[in-house]
Amino acid sequence: MPDRDALPHTVRVFAPASVSNLGCGFDIFGMALEGIGDEVVVRAVEGTGIVSVTVSGDAGRVPTDPARNAAALAVDGVLNRLESAAGVAIQVRKGIPMASGLGGSAASAVAGAVAADALLGGNLDRTALLECAMIGERKGSGANHADNAAPSLIGGFVLVLPGTPPQMVQLPTPDDLVVAVAHPHMEVETRQARMILGHTIPLMAGVQQWGNAAGMVAGLFRGDWELIARCLCDAVAEPVRGKLVPGFERVRASAVEAGAIGAGLSGSGPSVFALCRGRDPAERVVTAMAEAFRDEAGVESDTVISAARAAGARILDLRIGTR
Ligand code: HSE
Question: Considering the entire predicted model, what is its pTM?
Answer without folding.
Answer: 0.96
